[in-house]
Amino acid sequence: MTTSSFHPPVRTLMGPGPSDVNPRVLAAMSRPTIGHLDPVFVDMMDEMKALLQYAFQTKNELTLPVSAPGSAGMEMCFVNLVQPGDTVIVCINGVFGMRMKENVERCGATAVVVEDTWGHPVDPQKLEDALKAHPEANTVAFVHAETSTGACSDAKTLTEIAHRHDCLVIVDSVTGLGGVELRVDDWGIDAIYSGSQKCLSCTPGLSPVSFNDAAVARIKAREHKVQSWFLDLTLVMGYWGSGTKRAYHHTAPINALYALHESLVILQEEGLENSWARHRAHHEALRAGLESLGLELIVPRDHRLPQLNAVRVPDGIDEAAVRKMLLDDFSLEIGAGLGPLAGKVWRIGLMGYGANRRNVLLCLSALESAMAAQGADIRSGGAVAAAMAVYGA
């Protein structure tokens, strides 16, 4: 059998990630590959750290992109900061809190779970109560931007509570970075991880992380060797340290890092707060259109992520058939629900380069067609008109 070159179709990506990639980012990936210890590449690494510090709003020296997706960024935080015998409070309000719990247990630590309803933020009072009941805890882990539901938790308040009980915090903001307010230094976050493929509109495969001085001090005081060689920060920092003297650790994904660098340059050009405002504005237009279709977002209004919209599927609608029609007829991808929300919600992403008017209007008109095809009683053109009213057109 002869296999020819692969040519993917052109899609509009409005699921939970990956998001549409900015053409400038795709172009950056095609630049000439150089060595991962080339002085020119080392200079770019230093620029990358500064750009990530801006995106995270931090001065943390230990800020870098892990050469693997967001799940590896998560694991890097846990394997470096959690040791056998530790007690970690894990807040679960969706799939990715559950993954945090799994990481705690694989580190040989005890996970104490604080549970909240999927689609709702983490309840600060429940965290407070858990910390009072478990004074032996030394770490709190929670998801800032829960990708499985579109709920945004109050990272600032949760971090303050954890610190009052002498705990460090590990925060998941894979879907948050670049799309919603996030201030690592002002909020006192100790360790945080994200992903390149969401609101940064880069290709998948890299995980920005940042650790403050308190987190670094814990890493240096470890009694047990970090269980992962690849993710051991004491080794990785020999490569991502300051200056031109770098110790070989692994062959960095050079062209992927070109892409992340370009995506962060684009974010800097737009301005972080402008990016946050743009995501919010397009979310409001999408919300108005969805409501005109009789659709409901599952997250209470004050706690919604603008970049990830979990929409309840109406009775009588085949949610998988709708997604199939969107993909087949409109080349538009939206996401399905996970866990207990499987078959009950669509997840519609408005992330990074894809958070724009064209995508909002395409999604609304496509959903209108797909639901009408299943017999839903919908006013033709109403969703687009509702969104355009929000845009002021």
TrEMBL record:
Pfam families: Aminotran_5. Its cofactor is pyridoxal 5'-phosphate. This is Alanine--glyoxylate aminotransferase. The modification N6-(pyridoxal phosphate)lysine is found at K198. One of its GO terms (biological process) is glycine biosynthetic process, by transamination of glyoxylate. Gene3D superfamilies: Aspartate Aminotransferase, domain 1, Type I PLP-dependent aspartate aminotransferase-like (Major domain). Belongs to the class-V pyridoxal-phosphate-dependent aminotransferase family. Keywords: Aminotransferase, Pyridoxal phosphate, Transferase. Residues 34-335 form the Aminotransferase class V domain. It comes from the Bacteria. GO terms for molecular function: alanine-glyoxylate transaminase activity; L-serine-pyruvate transaminase activity. Substrate binds at R347. It comes from Thioalkalivibrio denitrificans.
